[in-house]
Amino acid sequence: MMAPWVETYRLRGGDIIMRSLCHVTKGAKSDSNSAAIEELKKQIEQIAQDLNLLKEQEALQTVCLKGIKIPGKCFLADTTKKSFHASNDDCTAKGGTLSSPLSGDENDQLYNYVQQTVGPEGHIWLGTGSPIRFKNWESEITHHPDGGRGQNCAILSSTANGKWFDEDCRGEKASVCQFNIV
């Protein structure tokens, strides 16, 4: 027979925790029983939050093992060529974002990773964000970004030593998702 009062928590990944917090006897609940029940509810909620955090950390470690880890983040390549928006949605669904180098060193590490995973002729979508903190536009030969009406998305090019170009967002390129490590 189940206790008269049962609390159920659903966690990410489909796990369910059921806890019988207290057996309530017939009659009015005392203030001490109510306080104890509330305290147990808070403890269970904290356990559920801690478990979800551990699951996220485990998933992030898996990503970092499959990809490459740099200070503060991990990169994971997807060599399937897709539009910018499809690539961005895929990264978001995995819990990350499209790669966005914040310094010359990060750009160099991303460029090296792209050469190893996507290939020496590879191009990947960049999630530059707004405002862009670091820029590595190819500006000497082609003067990018050139403000073209149809080219509103950024790519990193392996063939141009990690320089950035603006491209049509509907084109299909590989991508690298980044996952921030806290």
What does this structure look like?
- The protein is α+β, with helices and mostly antiparallel strands.
- The chain folds into two domains: 5-63, no CATH class; 69-180, Roll (Mannose-Binding Protein A, Chain A), CATH 3.10.100.10.
- It has three helices and nine strands, in the order ββαββαβαββββ.
- Strands 3, 4, 5, 6, 7, 8 and 9 form a seven-stranded mixed β-sheet that branches.
- Strand 3 and strand 4 (73-82) form a beta hairpin.
- The longest helix has 36 residues, at 31-66.
- It is elongated.
- The two termini are 45 Å apart.
- Residues 1-28 have low confidence and may be disordered.
- By CATH, the architecture of the largest domain is named Roll
Order of helices and strands: EEHEEHEHEEEE
> How is the CATH topology of the largest domain named?
Mannose-Binding Protein A, Chain A
The tally of beta strands, per DSSP, is 9
Structural class: alpha+beta
Question: Which residues form runs of ≥5 with pLDDT under 50?
Answer: 1-28
* Overall outline: elongated
The CATH C-level name of the largest domain is Alpha Beta
Distance separating the two termini: 45 Å
Give the number of domains: 2
Helix content: 25-40%
List descriptors.
single chain, 182 residues, alpha+beta, Mannose-Binding Protein A, Chain A, seven-stranded mixed sheet, two-stranded antiparallel ribbon, 9 strands, disordered N terminus, lectin, C-type lectin domain family 3 member B
Short description:
The chain is α+β, with helices and mostly antiparallel strands. It has helices at residues 31-66, 84-93, 104-117; strands at residues 5-10, 16-22, 68-70, 73-82, 97-98, 123-126, 153-157, 164-167, 173-180. Strands 3, 4, 5, 6, 7, 8 and 9 form a 7-stranded mixed beta sheet that branches. It has a two-stranded antiparallel ribbon with strand order 1-2.
